[in-house]
């Protein structure tokens, strides 16, 4: 593989191997697969990748990925229901959208507070969130951060920062996931589910 | 995700999900990762993908993937040692090259004989292999096909086709892989290793 005419191929394999979920071995397989399907898969993929690399950007309002300056969720009047759901990453926003249960808008922090990594409130788009609470007449902020230490710390920080605005603040319920078996759940989840137990409907 | 400005993103995710080893979920992660690293990873990857899609082709002589008409292995006089190693796929050629133990040239069949799938001797580049035996003064053909039923059937077919040329024909040894534990090996491998047992060096 140290031959000259393969250096581009090797460079491509190395780049593919940097993708999450792929390693050197699966990157080789993926590249060979693509070259075999050059017309039906490789060329469409390279064109679309180039196109998205040129056009995808963060929505100026909420931080969602969009090909427009303001994403379609922020642009839609239907989504202006007075609710903002605060999430860590765009992937969390997509997960919420897949559930199809949320009709409001989002605010993507782009991470969690991390003084050691120099990630402060500005990096998390906090000033913009405060502006939006007045400009979009928000009544409820749903803090849908991950149930990790970092996520919950950040949620508490945001709750403190927004306390003076008088906006209602909620978080996602914690408990047993749908389909979850108690035997396979960690102690923390069982404790949380027990503390937050609800009366059975009669 | 049904919003208009995301259709390109979704198309890209669908294309990535078709790669071997990736599914819808890991394709989403990979695309988000790329968009986050637009300048350092996404743009170089899209450029290299376009470049390779335009330049990669099958070597006219052996079927290896190359950016030249004749791959560097076929072009190298050093590799003309009278040996041709016949492999099923380019990935097998790469695996042989990684071992660094083979100094001859290759012949990539591009699959195995499969009458049901309409893969006959011509599709496997057999005529070209016969030509090469004379034109490259080949003394030994190493049949390095996979140790599967299809691979071995194809190996026997090739051996029959080349019998009249008088060229020496060998196959890879079968046995216990290096580092292999007997307890985890299948019966077929153990049987093959036992039949092909060798005297201990003294």
Automatic annotation (TrEMBL), chains A, B:
Gene Ontology MF annotations: DNA binding; zinc ion binding
PROSITE patterns (UniProt xref): TOPRIM
Alphabetic keyword roster: DNA damage, DNA recombination, DNA repair, Metal-binding, Zinc, Zinc-finger
Database matches in InterPro entries: DNA_Rcmb_RecR, Rcmb_RecR, Rcmb_RecR_Znf, TOPRIM_dom, TOPRIM_RecR
Domain of life: Bacteria
Keyword Ion transport: no
Alphabetized SUPFAM superfamilies for the sequence: Recombination protein RecR
C4-type zinc finger span: 59-74
GO terms under biological process: DNA recombination; DNA repair
Domain called Toprim: residue spans: 82-177
Pfam families in the record: RecR_C (PF21175), RecR_HhH (PF21176), RecR_ZnF (PF02132), Toprim_4 (PF13662)
Zinc-finger recorded as keyword: yes
Family as reported in the entry's similarity comment: Belongs to the RecR family.
HAMAP family given in the database record: RecR
Main function: May play a role in DNA repair. It seems to be involved in an RecBC-independent recombinational process of DNA repair. It may act with RecF and RecO.
NCBIfam families registered for this protein in UniProt: recR
Protein name: Recombination protein RecR
């Amino acid at each position: 593989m140290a031959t000259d005419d393969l250096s581009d191929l090797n460079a491509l394999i190395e780049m593919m191997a940097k993708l999450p979920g792929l390693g050197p071995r699966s990157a080789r397989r993926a590249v060979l697969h693509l070259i075999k399907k050059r017309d039906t898969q490789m060329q469409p993929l390279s064109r679309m990748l180039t196109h998205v690399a040129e056009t995808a950007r963060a929505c100026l309002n909420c931080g969602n990925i969009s090909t427009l300056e303001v994403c379609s969720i922020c642009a839609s009047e239907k989504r202006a229901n007075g609710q903002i759901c605060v999430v860590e990453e765009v992937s969390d926003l997509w997960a919420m959208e897949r559930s199809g249960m949320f009709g409001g808008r989002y605010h993507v922090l782009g991470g969690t507070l991390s003084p050691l990594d120099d990630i402060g409130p500005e990096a998390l788009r906090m000033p913009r969130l405060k502006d939006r609470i007045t400009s979009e007449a928000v009544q409820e902020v749903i803090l849908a951060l991950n149930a990790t230490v970092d996520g919950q710390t950040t949620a508490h920080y945001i709750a403190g920062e927004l306390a003076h605005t008088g906006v209602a603040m909620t978080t996602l319920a914690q408990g047993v996931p749908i389909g979850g078996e108690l035997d396979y759940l960690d102690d923390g989840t069982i404790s949380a589910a027990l503390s937050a137990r609800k009366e059975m409907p009669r």
